[in-house]
């Protein structure tokens, strides 16, 4: 399910499935994108930041078009103890690899990977970023 911002409308709360993972998407070319994410973070319960949130930064292949400071994005990851993923949507191979990584994160957060909890996925992400 996709939402452009938080909070989610409350009129369909009873129909909404359990939320296992929140992916905040930041377009590096848009200051509005980062501001929208920062505003939306206030509506997320603190318990979600224990392994159920990540930040996905798009447009990283066009650094010369940046409207967002990378330090600000890294700071969000640190403040909220959540991993930061980078993706260039225009490159199919990177888009596919990122989608696979997000699906794996979702499987972990939903409890479908035996022996791995949502709390540990952040450390798994940091370790994989070094590869």
TrEMBL record:
* A GO term from the CC aspect: nucleus
Which keywords appear in this protein's UniProt record, sorted alphabetically?
Answer: Centromere, Chromosome, Nucleus
Its source organism is Crotophaga sulcirostris
Cellular location(s): Chromosome, Centromere; Nucleus
Q: Which PANTHER family match?
A: CENTROMERE PROTEIN M
Q: Does the keyword Lyase apply?
A: no
Per the record, the major location class is nucleus
InterPro entries named in the record: Centromere_Cenp-M (IPR020987), P-loop_NTPase (IPR027417)
The gene behind this protein is Cenpm
Tell me which Pfam families the record gives.
CENP-M (PF11111)
Write down the Gene3D superfamilies for this protein, in alphabetical order. P-loop containing nucleotide triphosphate hydrolases
What protein is this chain from? Centromere protein M
């Amino acid at each position: 399910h996709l939402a452009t911002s938080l909070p989610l409308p409350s009129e369909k709360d009873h129909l909404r499935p359990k939320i296992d993972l929140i992916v905040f998407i930041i377009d590096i070319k848009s200051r509005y994108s980062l501001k929208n994410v920062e505003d939306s973070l206030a509506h997320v319960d603190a318990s979600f930041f224990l392994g159920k949130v990540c930040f996905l930064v798009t447009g990283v292949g066009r650094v010369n078009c940046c409207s967002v400071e990378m330090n600000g994005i890294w700071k969000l990851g640190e403040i909220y103890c959540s991993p930061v993923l980078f993706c260039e949507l225009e490159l199919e191979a990177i888009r596919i690899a990122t989608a696979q990584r997000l699906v794996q994160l979702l499987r972990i957060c939903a409890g479908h990977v035996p022996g791995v909890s949502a709390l540990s996925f952040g450390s798994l992400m940091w370790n994989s970023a070094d590869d």
